[in-house]
Specification:
- By secondary structure, the chain is an alpha/beta fold.
- Helices cover 33% and strands 16% of the residues.
- An 8-stranded parallel barrel has the order 3-4-6-9-10-11-12-13, surrounded by 7 helices.
- Strand 1 and strand 2 form a beta hairpin.
- Helix 3 packs parallel to helix 6 and helix 7 crosses helix 8.
- The longest helix is centred in the middle third of the chain and has 21 residues.
- It starts with 7 loop residues before the first strand and ends with a helix.
- The structure holds ligand FNR.
- Ligand FNR binds next to strand 4 and helix 10.
Length: 356
């Protein structure tokens, strides 16, 4: 029976434990998407902290796909160098470096949370147009997005593919495609945002087409030996939206296309939804997809106690737990968890005295 500190091998990559740093925007780049000392220290600390996998925040595959002007980017070869430095450090501290590739779609061009999170127009460092599947704004303050044309869709597919190639050049060992939280790819999946009448809208097959085309192209350039993850919102938490049944079907198709892990999050497609938030509230989706699809899954969402995280792995709910805010509060959480669960210490010798 696997437990939280059992190593996991996916393809040719071995994770020292089942704890991953969930992707978390830092809103700390300059306006050109470069990683800097903040990203370096923040991510390397969590590798020193003992996580098995350290994901960067969502990295924008094109400038118009940034959520805020301060998002991390990977739309140009010039982004590779500063990311490569981070990769080297994460690896030198024993963790696997992963990158999340993202496009914000109609949720692009807003202020960072510490500046209020409101839509920014061109006079405020923002940009227009923002794109989506259909011309439906996210909320009353957001701009009405421009529906992507066929050419625009091809550009997005190319942007994800090139971003995966750059991720490889930077040295990342895991790529995660962000198809959750109401961002562009989720805006194609969910009928609440996608009202297209062409090959990319309407039926389930059409709404899932863009994500599957991206996965196919990314898998073709991402080496066989490295894992490919997809983060989904397993449900929109509302009738007539995207739901767990479609997530199960999609996961089967993604598995056939070479996806290794489904990272099971939820929500984000429209504002004002009542989500029954409580510890582990999204783990049920990881469990069901794992059981019905026979694919590795990641559980995320209010997992904070070592016992809870261990139970998720031991009982076969998921293969990996991703922690967000708890790892912001305490980068050394994996060490604390190891001690609490009676495992051998996992932190560096320099910190041995902290173990006493
Ligand atoms: C996030 N989250 C997030 N998710 C994602 O897929 N890409 C991202 O870039 C971000 N950015 C982000 C920033 C910050 C500051 C937070 C707190 C969260 C969501 C995150 O990965 C995770 O899914 C949720 O926070 C739920 O997990 P926790 O925090 O309850 O462990």
């Amino acid at each position: 029976m696997a437990h939280l500190f059992e190593a996991l091998k996916i393809r040719e990559v071995t994770f020292r434990n089942r704890i991953a740093v969930s992707p978390m925007c830092q809103y700390s780049s300059n306006s050109e998407g470069y990683a800097n000392d903040w990203h370096l220290v923040h991510l390397a600390s969590r590798a020193v902290g003992g996580a098995g996998l350290v994901f960067t925040e969502a990295a924008a595959v094109e400038p118009r796909g940034r959520i805020t002007p301060q998002d991390l980017g990977i739309w140009s070869d010039t982004h590779i160098e500063s990311l490569a430095k981070i990769v080297t450090l994460i690896q030198s501290f024993g963790a696997v470096p992963g990158i999340q590739l993202a496009h914000a779609g109609r949720k692009a061009s807003v202020a960072k949370p510490s500046k209020g999170g409101k839509a920014l127009d061109e006079s405020q460092e923002g940009w227009r147009p923002v794109f989506s599947s259909s011309a439906i704004a996210f909320n009353k303050d957001s701009p009405v997005p421009t529906p992507l044309t066929r050419e625009g869709i091809q550009e997005v597919i190319n942007a994800f593919t090139q971003a995966a190639q750059r991720s490889l050049q930077a040295g990342f060992k895991v790529v995660e495609i962000h198809a959750a939280h109401g961002y562009l790819l989720h805006q194609f999946l969910s009928p609440l945002a996608n009202q297209r009448q062409d090959d990319y809208g309407g039926s389930y097959a059409n709404r899932t087409r863009l994500l599957k085309e991206i996965v196919e192209k990314v898998r073709a350039v991402w080496p066989e030996k490295y894992p490919l993850w997809v983060r989904i919102s397993a449900t929109d938490w509302i009738d007539k939206g995207w739901d767990i049944e479609q997530s199960v079907t999609l996961s089967k198709e993604l598995k056939a296309l070479g996806v290794d892990v489904i990272d099971c999050s939820s929500g984000g497609i429209i504002p004002g939804i009542n989500v029954p938030v409580k510890p582990g509230y999204q783990s049920q989706f990881a469990e069901r997809i794992r059981r019905e699809v026979d694919i590795l899954t990641g559980a995320v969402g209010l997992i904070t106690s070592p016992e809870h995280a261990d139970q998720i792995i031991r009982s076969g709910v998921a293969d990996i737990v991703l922690l967000g805010r708890e790892l912001l509060r305490n980068p050394y959480w994996p060490h604390v968890a190891a001690k609490k669960l009676g495992q051998e210490k996992v932190w560096p010798v320099q910190y041995d005295r902290a173990w006493l």
